[in-house]
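Ex. 9. Protein: Secreted protein.
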Amino acid sequence: MKWWALVVLAAVAHAVPLHKNIVYLPKILVPDSHTVWHTGEQHVVVCQPLNELFQGSFRYTSRHSWHDYARSSTPERLNEHLNQTLAQGFDLSTGNTSVTVPTDIPTRHDYIIVLFGDSGNASPRFTVVNK
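Predicted structure tokens for Secreted protein:
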């Protein structure tokens, strides 16, 4: 029976992380609720930049993607456009990244930008006008 306790102890020791993960939860500042973007244009998404403690310590594998709220009946449901990645592999320590608004999306007043990674932070709803 002692061998079983040793196996369990080894499994638990292996499962414990050797270092603490750093999770950064940046607030998306731009776009905001007053923002109007047009399809085909390039814009900058702005997040709270990292503080000095984290800058330069590691590269981020986050990405921005589109979402909108499709209004069926009630309640609102999120319509994810996960096949339209706007940016990926950018460095969050800069606090911004450029994106090009896709040309194949309809005019709506309820788009959001989502920062995928550990955070899943979303911007306020904003408008995109299809030219």
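Check your answer against this statement. The chain has a mean pLDDT of 71.
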